[in-house]
């Protein structure tokens, strides 16, 4: 019996869709290799003929032509075969792989196809144990793996700058931010978000706080943004005491890196650093109560699994964040929607419980 004849048209379509999903890894690698080779930069500089491009990238011409066909199928470039062996040009998507593109994603493509790829290869181990790949293999927690690998640390922070740039302008306009005072960006990397906040609000001053390998490139980045004179760059451990007092603590894509216990400790340090009437802004993607087949839900669940395999962290629901905030002596004031499925959770210190005196005794 031919089982194909027993399948419905809907089942055959579902099977074809699943085949595409299973094979989706090829796009990550094709785009990642294009970024590592600097293909977009070469094409933008006028090297468009395939053989010339192969020489510029030190690649086999035939194999490079096959990669270019794949990139054309992904909409990253256009490939026109001619008597010269083919010429290519960049699409608007491909332009974003240029290292000098305004919203470029070259570093992110490299990071996702190399360092992130390596830990995703053992998702099974993380699902079985609840621990990240690095925790299980090397006993490393958080960002310990970057301490002894300057090249990877530099690529990681470039990747974070690129991703933050996609949402920084929108976040800088958030009504949760004041127009004056001091704002500290915890785990702010090279300072992309803080720079955009300060550009949007001239009355604010900033403190950038992160590990040594993060702040190494911060000064140059802040100078380029034109806000360096308004920022104090400090390296340190945000599980310890923080500079204080500050009016705003920014925590963008920080808490999702950590388990619940560590996240509470970070929030406690943030609360302790607040001036009277200060606020903590937690900027994260909120896990929906019910996940559906929607682009925003795919983004959040992909990030959640990435936290599982990479750092041992997680994405959380609004209720989860309420519990963390409460444990840290904070309470949520409001939640504001932001770009790219992010939310801004504005939290303030809980009022201390009023002490009651002994009961009055009537005589």
Key words describing this protein structure:
methyltransferase; S-adenosyl-L-methionine; single chain; Arc Repressor Mutant, subunit A; two-stranded antiparallel ribbon; Rossmann fold; transferase; globular; alpha/beta; COMT_dimerisation; 363 residues; O-methyltransferase family 2
Please write the string of helix (H) and strand (E) elements: HHHHHEEHHHHHHHEHEHHEEHEHHEE
Total number of beta strands: 9
Total of DSSP H or I helical runs spanning 4+ residues: 18
* Low-pLDDT runs: none
From the coordinates shown, what is the CATH architecture of the domain at 165-289 and 313-355? 3-Layer(aba) Sandwich
Helix percent reads: 40-55%
CATH topology of the domain at 165-289 and 313-355: Rossmann fold
pLDDT averaged residue by residue: 91
Largest sheet at a glance?
A: 7 strands, mixed
Q: What's the CATH H-level homologous superfamily of the domain at 165-289 and 313-355?
A: Vaccinia Virus protein VP39
SS class: alpha/beta
CATH class of the domain at 165-289 and 313-355: Alpha Beta
The rounded distance between the terminal residues' Cα atoms is 97 Å
Shape: globular
**Spatial strand sequence of the major β-sheet:** 5-4-3-6-7-9-8
Radius of gyration: 24 Å
* Beta-strand proportion: 15-25%
What would your notes on this structure say?
The structure is a single chain. With 363 residues, the chain is α/β, with parallel strands linked by helices. Among the domains are: 19-98, Winged helix-like DNA-binding domain superfamily/Winged helix DNA-binding domain (Arc Repressor Mutant, subunit A); 165-289 and 313-355, 3-Layer(aba) Sandwich (Rossmann fold). 48% of the residues lie in helices and 17% in strands. The protein has 18 helices and 9 strands. The chain has helices spanning 9-22, 25-37, 39-44, 50-57, 61-73, 92-95, 106-113, 115-120, 123-129, 133-138, 144-147, 150-172, 192-200, 212-215, 218-225, 260-273, 295-310, 318-327; strands at 77-80, 87-90, 181-186, 204-210, 231-235, 246-252, 274-285, 330-337, 342-349. Strands 5-4-3-6-7-9-8 form a 7-stranded mixed beta sheet, sandwiched between helices. Strand 6 (246-252), helix 16 (260-273) and strand 7 form a beta-alpha-beta unit. Helix 2 (25-37) packs across helix 7 (106-113) and helix 7 (106-113) packs across helix 12. The protein starts with 8 loop residues before the first helix and ends in a 14-residue tail after the last strand. Keywords: Methyltransferase, S-adenosyl-L-methionine, Transferase. GO terms for molecular function: O-methyltransferase activity; protein dimerization activity. This is O-methyltransferase family 2. InterPro entries: COMT-like (IPR016461), COMT_C (IPR001077), COMT_dimerisation (IPR012967), SAM-dependent_MTases_sf (IPR029063), WH-like_DNA-bd_sf (IPR036388), WH_DNA-bd_sf (IPR036390).
